[in-house]
Q: What sequence folds into this?
């Protein structure tokens, strides 16, 4: 009886082992970025601002427009240090803002870009 229990225990261990080994492969390794474009004086979100996210000297690049909530969302496959530029076209030029951010694996990073009232 003791050998039978030992055999069943070993069989159970061997059948569970693949699940334990391969379940860690499902870990989310993407990096998520939420760029909040804000007015410098009022701290209110700015919709329809063009956002460019890029890596200096690298191949990572993403661009888009903020939604009505003033947020542009994107994701990348690997951690990186990225630069962010935001512009908003106005009547006689554009408003600008810049920042940089470090992405971390499996996390959502919030980056704030404040736009000054100055027109370029």
A:
């Amino acid at each position: 009886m003791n050998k039978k229990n030992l055999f069943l225990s070993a069989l159970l261990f061997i059948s569970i082992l693949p699940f334990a080994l391969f379940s860690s492969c499902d870990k989310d390794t993407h990096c998520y970025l939420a760029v909040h474009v804000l007015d410098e004086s009022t701290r209110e979100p700015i919709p329809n601002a063009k956002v460019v996210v890029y890596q200096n000297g690298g191949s990572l690049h993403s661009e888009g427009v903020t939604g009505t909530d003033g947020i542009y969302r994107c994701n990348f496959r690997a951690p990186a240090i990225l630069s962010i530029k935001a512009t908003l076209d106005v009547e006689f030029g554009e408003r600008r803002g810049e920042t940089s951010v470090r992405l971390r694996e499996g996390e959502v990073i919030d980056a704030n870009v404040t736009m000054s009232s100055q027109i370029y």
Q: What stands out?
A: Helices lie at 2-22. The mean pLDDT is 85. The beta strands are 31-39, 50-54, 61-65, 71-76, 81-90, 93-102, 108-115. The first helix runs from residue 2 to 22.
